[in-house]
Design a protein that fits this description.
Radius of gyration: 25 Å
Number of strands: 4
Largest sheet: 2 strands, antiparallel
Order of helices and strands: EEHHEEH
Number of domains: 1
Distance between the termini: 37 Å
Structural class: alpha+beta
Shape: elongated
Length: 116
């Protein structure tokens, strides 16, 4: 407690210290994964709006030249032969199952974090 120049008393509170003590630590991995998922969703929407349904976006792993190790390629599926089209469809379906599992797991973790 401190005295004001007019003779009244006031409390001096440090609001920033209070915010820091109640702040939750960020989970950098979850945030990074969420940002990547949003980025890929935006790319998918952009491609489907501009090009129609004949393009596919593929991620391939590379060991050099990229910070995250992934190369993004957009291919025209109309120019693929039968075997390559089968491979694209199989990879797309497998990725969907994996993404759904990751999404549901992340939601479950967040719900558990907030309920406990």
């Amino acid at each position: 407690m401190a005295d004001a120049s007019n003779g009244s008393e006031y409390f001096d509170l440090d609001v920033e210290t209070g915010r820091k003590s109640f702040a939750r630590p960020l989970n950098a991995e979850t945030v990074e994964q969420d940002e990547e998922d949003l980025r890929w969703a935006a790319i998918g929407r952009l491609l489907s709006q501009r090009q129609g349904n004949h393009l596919a976006t593929l991620r391939r792993s590379q060991t050099s030249g990229y910070a995250d190790g992934n190369v993004v390629q957009t291919i025209d599926v109309r120019k693929l032969d039968r075997l390559d089209r089968e491979m694209v469809v199989r990879q797309a379906l497998a990725t969907s199952d994996q993404d759904n599992y990751k999404l549901l797991s992340a939601i479950k973790k967040r719900l558990n974090r907030f309920t406990h």
